[in-house]
C-alpha cells in the first residue's frame, strides 16, 4: 500500500512488484485526523498487503518522527510507529521529495540511474537527491531544501520565510507576476547549481508548475547548460517527469518492497 499525504489531498494505491499502481484513490486530506484517514484507506483495500509506505510533506527525522507544517500539532509525530500499531504490518515513512526521486529512479525518467535529482516545483520547491543510489539526507535530514537556493539579489516579502528560489519561482510567484520566462531563467540557474554540485546523470523536473513546462523548459535548459560545470552540463539529461504525482506513490511503495 502506497500513500502520498499532501497538504490538501491524499492519494493511495496498491502497487505490485512491477510498479503497477492498482486501485488508485485520491481524496481531500482530513486535516483533523490524517492518521485515521490513512488507516481507513489501508483497511478498505486489499487485505493481503505486505507493507505500507507513506510519503509526507515535511521532514522525517532519524528517530522516525515527522514534522509537517501543513498539519496542526505535527512537530514530532511518530507516524510510522503509530501506523504499525494500528495496521499490524511494516510501515515506512519518507519525505515526499525523497519518495519522488525513488519513484523516478524505479519506474520514471531516471529508471536504472544511480545519480539523480528530482526538482519538484509547485506551491513550494524541493529536491530529492540520489548519489550512488543512496538518498542524500544531510546532518539534519534537510538536504533537498532547493527553495532556499539563492538565485538572485532580488527579494520580496516571502524570501525570508520560504527562501530565494521559492519566493521568486514557485507557483505563487507565477500567479503574482505571470512572468513564466523569468521563472524559467531562475529555475535554470537553480538547476545549474544542482548539476555543478552533484554531477547527476539526470535532472527530472516535476510538480504542479511543470504542467506548463512547455512555456519555460527551453529557457530553463538553456540557462542550466550555459551556467553549469561544462563537463557535467554536456552529459546530464534534463527532462520533465511523465509520472508526476505518481512518482511519490511509487517511491513510497519501493521503500516497503526493499
The largest sheet has its strands arranged as 3-2-1-4-7
CATH superfamily of the largest domain: ATPase, nucleotide binding domain
- Uncertain segments are none
Order of helices and strands: EEEHEEEHEHEEEHHHHEHHEH
Distance between the termini: 13 Å
Q: What CATH architecture of the largest domain would you give?
A: 2-Layer Sandwich
The major beta sheet can be summarized as:
5 strands, mixed
- DSSP E strands, number: 12
Instruction: Estimate the strand proportion.
Output: 15-25%
The number of helices is 10
How many distinct folded domains? 2
State the CATH topology of the largest domain. Nucleotidyltransferase, domain 5
Give structural notes.
The chain has a 5-stranded mixed sheet with strand order 3-2-1-4-7, sandwiched between helices. A 5-stranded mixed sheet has the order 10-9-8-11-12, sandwiched between helices. It has 10 helices and 12 strands. The model has no long low-confidence stretch (mean pLDDT 94). It is α/β, with parallel strands linked by helices and 258 residues long.
Show the helix and strand layout:
Elements lengths: L1 E4 L3 E7 L5 E8 L5 H10 L8 E5 L2 E2 L5 E2 L11 H9 L3 E5 H12 L8 E6 L3 E7 L2 E2 L23 H4 L1 H6 L1 H7 L2 H19 L3 E5 L10 H11 L2 H4 L3 E4 L5 H12 L1
Parallel strand pairs: 1-4, 4-7, 8-11, 11-12
Antiparallel strand pairs: 1-2, 2-3, 5-6, 8-9, 9-10
Summary?
The chain is α/β, with parallel strands linked by helices. It is built from ten helices and twelve strands.
Comma- or semicolon-separated keywords:
10 helices, 5-stranded mixed β-sheet, 258 residues, Nucleotidyltransferase, domain 5, alpha/beta, 12 strands
Amino acid at each position: 500500500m502506497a500513500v502520498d499525504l499532501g497538504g490538501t489531498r491524499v492519494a493511495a494505491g496498491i502497487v505490485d512488484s512491477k510498479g503497477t499502481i492498482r486501485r488508485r484513490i485520491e481524496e481531500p486530506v482530513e486535516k483533523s485526523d490524517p492518521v485515521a484517514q490513512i488507516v481507513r484507506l489501508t483497511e478498505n483495500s486489499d487485505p493481503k498487503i505486505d507493507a505500507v509506505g507513506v510519503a509526507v510533506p515535511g521532514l522525517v527525522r532519524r528517530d522516525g518522527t515527522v514534522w509537517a507544517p501543513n498539519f496542526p500539532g505535527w512537530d514530532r509525530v511518530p507516524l510510522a510507529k503509530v501506523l504499525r500499531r494500528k495496521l499490524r504490518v511494516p510501515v515506512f515513512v519518507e519525505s515526499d521529495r525523497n519518495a519522488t526521486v525513488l519513484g523516478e529512479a524505479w519506474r520514471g525518467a531516471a529508471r536504472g540511474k544511480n545519480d539523480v535529482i528530482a526538482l519538484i516545483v509547485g506551491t513550494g520547491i524541493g529536491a530529492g537527491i540520489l548519489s550512488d543510489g543512496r538518498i542524500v539526507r544531510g546532518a539534519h535530514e534537510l538536504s533537498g531544501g532547493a527553495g532556499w537556493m539563492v538565485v538572485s539579489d532580488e527579494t520580496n516579502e516571502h524570501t525570508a520565510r520560504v527562501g530565494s528560489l521559492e519566493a521568486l519561482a514557485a507557483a505563487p510567484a507565477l500567479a503574482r507576476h505571470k512572468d513564466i520566462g523569468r521563472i524559467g531563467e531562475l529555475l535554470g540557474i537553480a538547476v545549474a547549481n544542482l548539476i555543478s554540485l552533484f554531477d547527476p546523470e539526470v535532472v527530472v523536473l516535476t510538480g504542479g508548475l511543470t504542467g506548463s513546462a512547455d512555456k519555460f523548459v527551453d529557457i530553463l535548459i538553456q540557462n542550466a547548460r550555459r551556467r553549469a560545470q561544462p563537463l557535467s552540463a554536456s552529459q546530464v539529461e534534463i527532462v520533465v517527469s511523465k509520472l508526476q504525482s505518481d512518482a511519490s506513490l511509487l517511491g513510497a511503495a519501493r521503500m516497503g518492497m526493499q
